[in-house]
Amino acid sequence: MSFIQFQNVTKYYNRAVVPAVDHLNLEISKGEIITLLGPSGCGKTTTLRMLAGFEQPTAGEIRIGDEVVYDDRRSLPPEKRGIGMVFQDYALFPHLTIEKNVMFGLNKWKARDKKKRVQEVLELVGLGDFGQRLPSELSGGQQQRVALARALAPNPKVILMDEPFSNLDAGLREKMRFDVTNILRKANATAIIVTHDQKDAFTVSDRVVVMNEGVIQQIAAPKEIYRCPVNCFVAQFVGKTNLISGTLCPDLKHVETHFGRVCVPQQTNQESENVVVSIRPEGCRLAEYGRYAGIVEQATYSGEYQELHVRLQSDHTPNQPMVIYAPIEQDIEIGSAVTFNITPELVALVN
Ligand SMILES: Nc1ncnc2c1ncn2[C@@H]1O[C@H](COP(=O)(O)OP(=O)(O)OP(=O)(O)O)[C@@H](O)[C@H]1O
Ligand SMILES: [Mg+2]
Predict the structure, then answer these.
(1) Ligand 1: which residues within 6 Å by Cβ?
(2) Cα dihedral sign, 214-217-219-224
(3) Which ligand 1 atom is nearest residue 21's CA?
(4) pLDDT digits (tens, 9 = 90+) for 247-260
(5) Which residue puts its alpha carbon closest to atom 7 of ligand 1?
(6) Nearest ligand atom owner, CA of 214
(7) Contacts of 308 (CB under 8 A, 6+ apart)
(8) Which residues are CB-contacts of 135 (< 8 A; sequence separation ≥ 6)?
(9) N or C end: fewer C-beta atoms under 10 angstroms in the chain?
(10) How many angstroms does the Cα of residue 195 sit away from the middle of ligand 1?
(11) Keyword Nucleotide-binding on this protein (predicted)?
């Protein structure tokens, strides 16, 4: 049985004509780390706040463990839901030491247990020697670990983190993704993390929930989201892709496109033969005698790879050029002819 369950949860804010969250169904297992991923305004924070009890759904049911925390008859207050929340700005008390900050949620504990628990969680987040400092005496990443320690201290059933990495610069962000995941795993926590950054979502979570306009688009492990996006929105939101329309062949394993046949790996239950395929740029590999041919119109260096825009030979209509990632060491001139193959594992049928 799932540990957290949203059942048909819908939220209309006052006077809104469209819901912020629309018939959301989601089940989360104990110990799972889930991210809610989607563009600004898609309902991620609203979902988190409804679970925490800070916002009331308009309809639906929410369960944590074997307890219904919200339905049309009851709403458990936030402090009774056993949730630890880490806010985007960490919300540490500036005038209190790190130790006192972490102690904050433990006011019902005995003094001796309190001290022991504070030291335990500070050690868990790698700040065992920092208890006597003030928040202003810590770096951004350290402050975030204090916020996480404070949330974990009372042994909550669930940890919620809203945009936990958005205040950090690129290098620290990468480290904190790793640290936060490790800490959550060590604490055996069940966690929901909100982000609009694909890399955050992919690196920290067991499963990713992609949302758009209040509606869940896909729930799957990171690799599956990337390799088999279910629709154009997901394909485009998580990384770059080429969306190309074509006709599904009777064998259901190939699609006829304007530049030739493309193999699609996964079985489909598509009813129409008019389909769209998503082909990832890194799934197109330059080759000496590749199956597909075109002329390089543009080459941009990103440092890790070069992004080529290739006008396909067979392309007599004003289609978008194909985006292909090529290795950085390869010298490619604008206007040169190239051929390439497509890796089927990075091709997906999308709706
Ligand atoms: N208190 C509120 N009153 C009215 N409308 C709200 C309120 N909070 C959010 N909304 C609206 O609900 C929708 C979803 O907002 P929400 O904050 O959940 O989005 P989000 O996915 O967290 O976005 P972001 O990535 O920008 O934080 C938006 O259209 C927003 O304008
Ligand atoms: Mg938000």
Answers:
(1) 13, 20, 38, 40-46, 196
(2) negative
(3) 14
(4) 999 888 999 998 88
(5) 13
(6) 1
(7) 296, 298, 299, 323, 324, 325, 326, 332, 338
(8) 90, 92, 93, 94, 96, 98, 101, 143, 146
(9) N
(10) 13
(11) yes
Q: How far apart are the first and last CA of the chain?
A: 31
DSSP 304: S
Atom of ligand 1 nearest to the CA of 11: 12
Give the ligand at the shortest distance from the Cα of 197: 1
Average predicted confidence (pLDDT) for the chain: 92
Cα 343 from Cα 283, distance rounded (Å) = 5
**Which residue lies with its CA nearest to atom 16 of ligand 1?**
43
Enumerate residues 6+ apart whose C-beta is below 8 A from 31: 188, 189, 190
Q: How close is the Cα of 196 to the center of ligand 1, in Å?
A: 13
Q: Is 43 left (phi over 0), alpha (psi -120 to 50) or beta?
A: left
Query: What is the pLDDT averaged over residues 39-55?
Result: 96
> What's CA 261's distance to the chain center, in Å?
32
